[in-house]
Design goal:
Strand order of the largest sheet: 13-12-9-14-17-18-19-20
Number of domains: 2
CATH class of the largest domain: Alpha Beta
Structural class: alpha/beta
Helix content: 25-40%
CATH architecture of the largest domain: 3-Layer(aba) Sandwich
Shape: elongated
Largest sheet: 8 strands, mixed
Number of helices: 14
CATH topology of the largest domain: Rossmann fold
Length: 419
């Protein structure tokens, strides 16, 4: 009889398929933070990772193995048998996992792993993985006094000396709590992406909106949320790149893994861009920020009072065009420009986009019409038209911004080498 795949595995790759084929063993030990383990497993799966679970006896007293079998679609290892499960998962075998995540890790388990003591399925899995050279990520969770114990501190230092990645917990309410689920998942992704398409590459992404000050309180700006730029940074990271984000104002949430450089004005964004381009080898720049085109000719030192005033006249002057300076600063850097237009035909989008790509000497441009419902500023979706300097064109239909970002990254990857 043919056995159908477990229904819970339907979510694999629902956010990204970039890591399809990667496997992670999730070890769970006896902390009440184990209630988060299902959520961790499910988010890893949504990023394309196949998750296998190993639980200590104490963990199985806190959450039932059936929960983790439901979460991952695989039977859960709760004891080691003649099947030598620890070797099958992390030993010197062909189908071993790509990384091991222990979340949560108790003080007891941390001490055992540091000393090579194997008396639970999780500690035995860890020893096997360390000996095989598989990346191991450990996420402590315990009461705060236990985390501060000198022996626990030494054990964590020992683990780090062995090359194990130990996450810093959140200290709150007298406890050393697990970091946010996304932080844990992106730490694992960081260990999985070493052979992904952009491994070893470094990108700068501009995101959000700039502001230009009329006085210390009032500004000229636009409605960009930064969601498209941050989605692009996330997509680049999952594809293997190291990412610096020049982030103006916005409501988009930064993600773990990116280096965020906060800026206010167009001049500040340009200054940060110059620093990064002059001091590092940057493979690509994606200029997704909505940089304001105008700024006041002068800014008042104090709040401008409206008392007795009939109006306020401002003289506006252009802000620096950041994308026009990228190639001069770093000629070998791939430049992806963005262009937001309003209620234009496809031919108008094409002509304007190609003209702007040429004046910036960009390698490609992404053009969108923010007049379309669901596209552009302050929404979760976007529709884009991609053009490159060789005349190629790709249309990205209305989709979630991260899905659109992955398609833009797919457009960039072959062009980095000039193909």
């Amino acid at each position: 009889m043919m056995i159908e795949p477990h229904p819970s595995r339907d979510i694999i790759g629902s956010i990204s398929r970039r890591l399809i084929g990667k496997k992670v063993a999730l070890g769970i030990t006896g902390s009440v933070a184990a209630v988060k383990s299902s959520e961790i497993a499910r988010l890893l799966m949504r990023y394309g990772v196949d998750v296998r679970v190993v639980m200590s006896p104490e963990a199985a007293r806190i959450i039932h193995p059936n929960l983790m079998e439901w979460s991952t679609g695989h039977p859960v290892v709760t004891e080691l048998t003649g099947g030598i499960e620890h070797v099958a998962l992390a030993g010197n075998v062909a189908e071993k996992v790509d990384a091991v995540l222990i979340a949560p890790a108790t003080a007891n388990s941390i001490g055992k792993i540091a000393c090579g003591i194997d008396d639970t399925p999780v500690t035995t899995l860890s020893t096997t993985a360390i000996g095989e050279g598989i990346p191991v990520i450990i996420v402590p969770a315990m009461h705060q006094p236990m985390y501060k114990h000198p022996a626990v501190i030494r054990n964590i230092e020992t683990l780090r000396d062995m090359g194990i990645d130990v996450l810093i917990p959140r200290l709150s309410e007298g406890k050393a709590k697990l970091p946010e689920v996304e932080e844990i998942v992106f730490r694992v992704i960081g260990a999985l992406r070493k052979d992904t398409p952009l491994s070893g590459k470094r990108f700068i992404v501009t995101a959000g909106r700039t502001v230009e000050y009329i006085d210390p309180i009032r500004v000229i700006t636009n409605n960009s949320s930064g969601k498209m730029g941050m989605a692009l940074a996330r997509a680049l990271y999952v594809a293997g790149a190291e990412v610096d984000v020049l982030f103006g104002k916005g409501t988009a949430l930064p993600f773990p893994g990116a280096a965020i450089h906060y800026v206010d004005t167009a001049a500040e964004m340009l200054a940060e861009m110059k620093i990064l381009l002059s001091g590092n080898r940057i493979d690509g720049v994606i200029a997704a920020a909505a940089v304001g085109d105008w700024k006041p000719a002068g800014s008042a030192d104090d709040k401008i009072s409206t008392r007795g005033a009939d109006g306020l006249e401002l003289k506006l002057i252009p802000t620096p065009k950041i994308i026009d300076q990228v190639k001069a600063l770093s000629p070998g850097t791939f430049l992806a420009a963005f262009r937001a237009l309003y209620h234009k035909s496809l031919d108008e989008l094409r002509q304007d986009g190609i003209r702007r790509m040429d004046t910036a000497e960009a390698d490609m441009i992404a053009v969108n019409d923010i007049g379309l419902p669901g596209a552009g500023f302050e929404v979760e979706t976007n529709e884009l038209h991609l053009f490159d300097k060789k005349g190629n064109y790709t249309h990205i239909e209305m989709s979630e911004k991260f899905a659109a970002a992955e398609k833009i990254v797919d457009f960039i990857i072959p062009r980095l080498s000039g193909d």
